[in-house]
Design a protein that fits this description.
Helices cover 32% and strands 25% of the residues. By secondary structure, it is an alpha+beta fold. The protein folds into three domains: 4-192, Trna Endonuclease, Chain: A, domain 1, CATH 3.40.1350; 202-286, no CATH class; 290-454, no CATH class. The protein has a six-stranded mixed sheet. Helix 8 runs antiparallel to helix 13 (272-286), helix 9 packs antiparallel against helix 13 (272-286) and helix 12 packs antiparallel against helix 13. The longest helix is centred in the N-terminal third of the chain and has 24 residues, at 44-67. Pfam families: DUF1822. InterPro entries: DUF1822 (IPR014951). This is DUF1822 family protein. It comes from Nostoc favosum CHAB5714.
Length: 459
């Protein structure tokens, strides 16, 4: 990105005298932070707006602190501070002020007297605020002016609203007395401005259009392509309301930009890996998960029971069980081999297995879990996955075994031709809120995907 600050002139005394009396002076730290955050936007045409959005946030926070010390400002969920959201939403949504949600609309000029509101912050409950606040960023004077505001219910009363991906509003729709906004933030009950509820069927909506998104989203590899060029609004709504999809798309564009395999905005050929990781991600979002944490309580949840998973005995008791050719015996043989290779499996670990068919071939999946603590002290869980066949028979030579999480494909393995192993294994570790998806395939079009594995010690 070119230096955003190269065109910003030092503030002169004449500029200062010309500023509105309500203007907020931006500090060098504010400007540096805005430049740093906008650099995380890959499309240079969007970087300037991201820069203005950051400055608007700093100015609004300072404006509130100077005029309403008792109000608590929480920027934790603010979209401009989350690169994947900032990359696709041209405003500052989900800023929390007390019990109110605020959306900042930053502009470098009010000369055309038209305000553009992204449809995302008007039509999607996840991003709809109690108040839209218009902030004029005077970048040359290193200042900003909280200019006007519009309550959500007044926006909904405007009958002439028309939109494709943005709503165009006359600036006259806004209240140009921001002191009244301070009064509302101090004295108004949030329930006085009713916001629409977030639908509870987001996952079902995504599941209905997942095939469309698997086909279309990889076409957005180039950051120069707008969502509106590829997706309908309904398809884009599913992406905006599932943060994991936005993160996937942001990562895709980041990787594409880093490799510099894109010329003049044309996307490189689509990779099968993109399709597989996207398919896995959608399944992680939409499918119910097995709770492996229940295994530590000697329990299977209802989903595991319905899919005929079988709980294995504890490792402390395994040596006492010697039924011939039982899954437990086969598992003990495999675990002994893994431990001899240095894989540590604590005695408190618990496992389960499931038999299934792939193209008529009988297979068996063992899964073992235990909890652990990271170096930072944060609780984590471990999942050991072992793919084999009943009676330790040979696996097909062309079999593949893939494990994914919300960030992408973590591991993909086949049989080691140099090994005599009759199984494939891998181990993954995640935070307690992370899930893992396992797929087994013979060819690209012959695949079985198991329900996601989750970890919750609650009963």
């Amino acid at each position: 990105m070119t230096n955003l600050l190269s065109n910003i002139s030092p503030m002169s005394y004449l500029d200062f005298d010309a500023l509105p009396t309500s203007a907020v002076i931006l500090s060098p730290d504010d400007i540096d932070q805005a430049a740093e955050i906008s650099n995380q936007i890959f499309d240079e045409s969007k970087q300037w707006q991201a820069y203005l959005n950051c400055l608007a946030l700093s100015a609004f926070e300072q404006w509130l602190e100077e005029r309403a010390e008792g109000l608590t400002i929480n920027r934790e969920k603010c979209t401009i501070l989350q690169p994947a959201l900032a990359n696709f939403i041209n405003s500052v949504a989900n800023l929390q002020v007390g019990e109110f949600k605020v959306c900042l609309i930053a502009t470098g000029s009010l000369s055309d007297e038209i305000v553009s509101l992204p449809r995302v912050v008007v039509d999607l409950p996840e991003f709809i605020p109690h108040f839209y606040v218009l902030v004029e960023v005077l970048e040359e004077q290193e200042a900003a002016n909280v200019y006007a505001f519009l309550p959500y219910q007044e926006l909904r009363e405007i009958t002439s609203l028309q939109s494709d991906w943005n709503y165009q509003l006359p600036i006259s729709c806004f209240d140009e007395n921001p002191d009244r906004l301070l009064l509302y933030l101090r004295c108004l009950e949030p329930s006085a401005i009713s916001l629409p509820a977030i639908p509870t069927n987001r996952s079902a909506i995504l599941a209905n259009i997942q095939n469309q998104l698997v086909e279309l989203l990889p076409q957005l590899q180039s950051p120069r392509r707008e969502l509106s060029e590829v997706l309908t609004w309904e398809q884009a709504s599913a992406v905006f309301t599932n943060p994991e999809l936005l993160n996937w798309l942001y990562t895709l564009q980041k990787q594409n930009t880093a490799t510099e395999n894109v010329e003049m905005g044309s996307a490189k050929p689509e990779s099968p890996g993109y399709f597989a990781s996207l398919q896995d991600l959608i399944k992680l979002i939409t499918q119910p998960a097995l709770n492996a944490g229940r295994w530590l309580w000697d329990e299977l949840d209802d989903l595991a029971l319905s899919l005929s998973w079988v709980l294995l005995p504890s490792f402390a008791d395994a040596s006492e069980m010697r039924p011939i050719r039982s899954p437990e015996e086969e598992f003990e043989v495999i675990v002994t081999q893994l431990r001899q290779r240095g894989l540590e499996i604590p005695v408190q670990a618990r496992g389960a297995y499931q038999d299934f068919l792939l193209a008529g071939i009988p297979l068996r999946m063992y899964a073992v879990t235990w909890h652990l603590v990271s170096e930072s002290g944060k609780p984590e869980w471990s999942l050991l996955l072992i793919l084999g066949a009943p009676a330790l028979s040979s696996l097909p030579s062309n079999i593949k075994f893939r494990v994914s999480d919300q960030t992408g494909i973590l591991d993909e393995r086949g049989l080691n031709a140099e090994s005599e192993d009759s199984y494939i294994f891998t181990r993954v570790v995640g935070n307690w809120d992370e899930k893992f998806l396992v797929s087994v395939s013979l060819m690209d079009d012959v695949e079985v995907t198991l329900p996601p594995f989750a970890f919750d010690l609650g009963r």
